[in-house]
Amino acid sequence: MVEQSSDGDTIDCVDISQQPAFDHPFLKDHKIQMRPNYHPEGLFDENKASAKPIERSSPITQLWHQNGRCPEGTIPIRRTKKDDVLRASSAKRYGRKKHRSIPQPRSADPDLINQSGHQHAIAYVEGDKYYGAKATINVWEPKIQQPNEFSLSQLWILGGSFGEDLNSIEAGWQVSPDLYGDNNTRLFTYWTSDAYQATGCYNLLCSGFIQVNSEIAMGASISPVSAYRNSQYDISILVWKDPKEGHWWMQFGNDFVLGYWPSFLFSYLAESASMIEWGGEVVNSEADGKHTSTQMGSGHFPEEGFGKSSYFRNVQVVDDSNNLKAPKGIGTFTEQSNCYDVQTGSNGDWGHYFYYGGPGRNPNCA
Question: Any catalytic annotation for residue 170?
Answer without folding.
Answer: yes
